[in-house]
Amino acid sequence: MATQQSRSAARIMMAPAVILLLGWMLVPLTMTVWFSFKKYLPLRGGDLGWTGFDNYVRFFTSSAFWPSVQATLVIVGGVLAITIVFGVLLAALLNQPMWGRGIVRILVIAPFFVMPTVSALVWKNMFMDPVNGLFAHLWKLFGAEPVSWLSEASLESIILIVSWQWLPFATLILLTAIQSLDSEQLEAAEMDGAPPLKRFGFITLPHLSRAITVVVLIQTIFLLSIFAEIFVTTQGAFGTKTLTYLIYQRVLESQNVGLGSAGGVYAIILANIVAIFLMRIVGKNLDT
Amino acid sequence: MGRIVLDKISKSFGDVEVIPPLDLAINDGEFTVFVGPSGCGKSTLLRLIAGLEDSSGGHIRIDHEDATHVPPAKRGLAMVFQSYALYPHMSVRKNIAFPLKMAKMDKAEIDRRVEGAASVLNLTDYLDRRPGQLSGGQRQRVAIGRAIVREPSAFLFDEPLSNLDAALRVGMRLEISELHKRLKTTMIYVTHDQVEAMTMADKIVVLQAGVIEQVGSPLELYRAPRNVFVAGFIGSPKMNLLSGPEIADYNAHTIGTRPEHIAISQTEGVWEGTVGVSEHLGSDTFVHVKCAAFPEPLTVRVRGELDLSYGSTVFLTPDPEHLHRFDAQGLRFA
Amino acid sequence: MARSVTTRRKTLNTLFAWAVGLLIFFPILWTILTSFKTEAQAISDPPVFLFFDWTLENYAAVQERSNYMRFLWNSVIIAGGSTLLGLIIAIPAAWSMAFVPSRHTKDILLWMLSTKMLPAVGVLYPIYLIFIRMGLLDTKTGLVVVLMLINLPIIVWMLYTYFKEIPGEILEAARMDGATLKEEILYVLTPMAIPGIASTLLLNVILAWNEAFWTLNLTAAKAAPLTAFIASYSSPEGLFYAKLSAASTMAIAPILILGWFSQKQLVSGLTFGAVK
């Protein structure tokens, strides 16, 4: 519904954003693919020529590959499950009548503003430290042996830290969605004789499906590439080496750019599989 | 000063032809109403004239100049939108002044024109309010004010009254007619409401599926609708359109008779029927009569009050002077 | 329609919700409290909660050890600059998508969002090389550009959803009134979309402020923002709880305060306009 003139204006005005993003995507991507077929060691001789699929085979067959994929999926899945379940519960709680809801909401949102490096450091030292951490004090209080969280329950610890950061996001989106639920629907269900739990299950939860989709999509985008939380806690040790971190180590720590680039291509493929899957859902949701 | 000519103008969205090639001339100073059911292309036609849509073919001439490819702002037309489209972040004064500001008019002249428009439209006390603080009717006036300050060669109205409640609508209808009488500027007015068309127009253009069914003055359309569609669309209550074996005597495929042109009697008449619901308006009574001869009930308009009990038998007689006869193609013949 | 609830139920809700809220907030509260303790009190067993000798010595020590103000300034420039630059590029693009949609609009939007899924680590080395070649390594300019690019899809997406709620008739009215495209965007669209633009701005400032991959990997001494400032405390020799807490508080305070003050805009921004 527009004229030729406004359509061409639209194309011109969209161009900068599209061109920039296209460049941002294609240029480094091409370089990564280029490097991935090379033996390239910046500190040990630089470009040592083409190696075909050597890097891909080495990265894929290295003992670290599958554990890293697994660690990535466990972290993403764990955080998603925790934030959505607790997010729904918390949103339902915050939607109840109470005094000082504004302040409670501020308290709940706060972790979202904390930069990942800070939250990782605070959790690592002040809570999870086996000697001086608060958890250690709490365990001793009940006569239990303090746990060395980040080495003994490393993945769980990381999931806890990341969930704490993302729970506010999930809660807020779900709370907004709950508040938009037409209360007449709930009242109609009440008139029809549905008890509170059934009302929640049959009316509130389905109403939240769109919001949950949004939470899954956006969180997955960010969770697939979490870095700082691992960088400042375990440095990838104790089974917390995600694909992101593994590639980071190959590129920056072992300075094997060829191998790291091959890993990068794998990571891009993995991300795209997830992306296609998610885009389908979101694209469908956008129509309605 | 405001003669608009459409020459074989057409519009398609993709493969769908919304308006087949169409000719129309609107004379300077004329109040023209485009009327038709929703989806008939009347708003699209208006937007083509405004330049908010490109035509797919043909030419638009405004004051003898080809305006087909002229951008909307340069056509010298002003438009009042259905939603009023006021700028919510600007005061009434700034809203009305906006087109003048865009035309880089000097400050004093802008003020003069805004004050002038405001006093004509009874908006002087509201100039510093935001649109959100105004009632529907006041917003409507602001939208009109924004149009008149530009002193355009023609005004375009896109269903401007459809968001108002019934009482206000009648008032605004009068105000717009009044404005036209005073300004004598060409106005093109789109509506789906045939009452608005009948009461305001110098010239009515009846559209259906992008095709002009008839062009004429309100009374021409009332007296001599060109076809069944116009006959059924213009006039309230609707004309009774009858077909079937009963009307073979009339030598037509379909006959039409308006509710006000049927005589009702309890003793004698042409068609026998039973009384259905009667609607009492005080000034008139609309009686719905079910006749065995026709599948649809007939509506009869009687002046004043008439008390007929539901289910009683009556006889109807159409006024032969005002009988419309249509052929198998739905076209009227005398 | 709000219905009256019994006071008892409301009291229970309140108690429960406050308990949960405080639990979630506790790590931040604990960090802030610890920042005012002495190092000895910070690791005392059992831990002290409120009754300790409040001191500011940690803040002084942190400022002395690493120049906080410089990191803060870098963070402000990088987060603010990347967001503003992103808005300037995204507003026209979002206008096009919202008001002149074509068959491809949705595909372009989804494609833009999909660039966010490109794992940063996959392109770290190429970006690193490009930065060296262009002399952008450890410069604020370089980070402004990179963070603008990674947040651009979100900015476009958010603005698009906000713009879509503005009736197109108003922009058409502006066009009829003789506004050029620039005037239409500047005088009509932008002022009407201020709340949406504000939410977008806030959320992206926060995302850029907290971004901790590119800021850690593309900076050294000169352009390092607060994420890097705090990461320097992860090495064991810097491990003093009170000083760590002071540094942490200093790193998160600006954004925490900004976030709390603009809670309302943020809530709508956080939903990316996807949830009403």
UniProtKB/TrEMBL annotation, chain A:
Membrane topology: Multi-pass membrane protein
UniProt-listed InterPro entries: ABC_transporter_permease, MetI-like, MetI-like_sf
Localization per Swiss-Prot or TrEMBL: Cell membrane
One of the protein's GO biological processes: transmembrane transport
Keyword Manganese: no
Keyword annotations from UniProtKB, A to Z: Cell membrane, Membrane, Transmembrane, Transmembrane helix, Transport
Domain ABC transmembrane type-1: 69-278
Protein name per Swiss-Prot or TrEMBL: Sorbitol ABC transporter membrane protein /mannitol ABC transporter membrane protein
Native species: Sulfitobacter brevis
Automatic annotation (TrEMBL), chain B:
ABC transporter domain sequence ranges: 4-234
Annotated InterPro entries: AAA+_ATPase, ABC_transporter-like_ATP-bd, ABC_transporter-like_CS, ABC_transpr_MalK-like, ABC_transpr_MalK/UgpC-like, Mo/tungstate-bd_C_term_dom, NA-bd_OB-fold, P-loop_NTPase
Keywords associated with the record: ATP-binding, Nucleotide-binding, Transport
Keyword flag Transport: yes
Gene Ontology cellular-component terms listed: ATP-binding cassette (ABC) transporter complex, substrate-binding subunit-containing; maltose transport complex
Entry keyword annotation includes Ribonucleoprotein: no
PROSITE patterns per the UniProt record, alphabetical: ABC_TRANSPORTER_1 (PS00211), ABC_TRANSPORTER_2 (PS50893)
Protein's name in the database: Sorbitol ABC transporter ATP-binding protein/mannitol ABC transporter ATP-binding protein
Organism, scientific name: Sulfitobacter brevis
UniProtKB/TrEMBL annotation, chain C:
Domain (ABC transmembrane type-1): residue spans on this chain: 72-262
Primary localisation category: membrane
InterPro entries: BP-dep_ABC_trans_perm (IPR050901), MetI-like (IPR000515), MetI-like_sf (IPR035906)
One term under GO cellular component: plasma membrane
Bilayer disposition of the protein: Multi-pass membrane protein
Domain of life of the native organism: Bacteria
A GO biological-process term: transmembrane transport
Coiled coil: none
Keywords associated with the record: Cell membrane, Membrane, Transmembrane, Transmembrane helix, Transport
Localization per record: Cell membrane
Transmembrane segments: 12-33, 71-96, 108-131, 143-163, 184-209, 240-261
Similarity comment: family membership: Belongs to the binding-protein-dependent transport system permease family.
Protein name per Swiss-Prot or TrEMBL: Sorbitol ABC transporter membrane protein /mannitol ABC transporter membrane protein
